[in-house]
Amino acid sequence: MELSEIRTKIDAVDDQLLTLFLERMALSEEVASYKLQRGQPILNKQREREILAKVTQRTGDKERYAYHLFSTLFELSRSRQAELISSPTKVGARVKAALASNSEVFPQTGTVACQGVEGANSQVACDRLFPRGNLVYVKSFDAVVAAVESGLCKFGVLPIENSSNGSVRKVYQLLLEHDLSVVRATRLCIRHELLALPGVKLEEITEIHSHEQAIGQCSQFLGGLKDVKVVPCANTAMAAKMVAERGSRNVAAISSHPCATLYGLECINDHIQDSDNNYTRFLCVAKEPVIYAGANKISLTLAFENRPGALYEIVSKLAAMDINMTKLESCPVAGSDFEFIFFLELEASVKASGVLSMLEEMERCCAQFQFLGNYAEV
Known about the structure:
This protein is an alpha/beta fold. The protein is built from 13 helices and 15 strands. Strands 1, 2, 3, 4, 5, 11, 12, 13, 14 and 15 form a 10-stranded mixed β-sheet that branches. A 5-stranded mixed β-sheet has the order 8-7-9-6-10.
């Protein structure tokens, strides 16, 4: 049989498949109506298992492919039913409240909580997000959250991850513990320098101070030094300020070039970070959920039963909606009933058709679910 003949037969089968698929989806809509009237859940795992068992018994050496085909059909069916069944969910209420704020354009000003002092990378991120913002400096990430929750500041800016040194787990933990909404994000190119008092040579240095993330991003350089004590501190700019105030020729800081000018220091070495492609991502959080114009990223946290296929069920919902997942990270949670909490980031908008109903279905099937926000990254 010629290839053209085979393809003609495939086209005919595809036409039949499409007709049957549309018929099946129409029946799924009838199922949704039935379940809605009787308050029944969308997912019927027992029935799905029974069908999959029959499918695998009848398909011989192609059972693996048939299993995935029918699993995808089930997911598409549930997604359509979720669009039609509007039982109340927390994520639905939160999204509707955020959209009801009628905040079209992200503000250029506002009172913003910023961890550190003048010259910190968080301050640069704040200035990028709020060109005319009123910055309130605080000592810790916890203090940023407290300032926003108390109403002292309308917004707070927190570093969430670095391309060289990974996630800032402390900030992730704060997002889990506090009911804040992510309303914006930005990404900064970070360049670290070794700063000390004017005229100091590298061989004089016996102590280096910086934030633990910056220390991790310069690990190769620091590993090559002998008899030098590395001391973590709250912020790279605070490290530079401390070196200037202490006035010792034996102390240096890993900080930024602007901090050298700001605190009267000199650069001993400006090639100390492990990678030139070094970016830190910052989130802007607010007390009330707000979705501004241009929002195209969604952040979530969720937890589910520790069983085979549990994560696949979540990912398959995204595949069914053709949504790209840009981040998936697990975080162990001490004292929790679940071994891990998962952090997800999606390229999507809750205004797009089917996205909110998909999130609602994810909430229904997860033991723990938190919608962090729908926002734009600049």
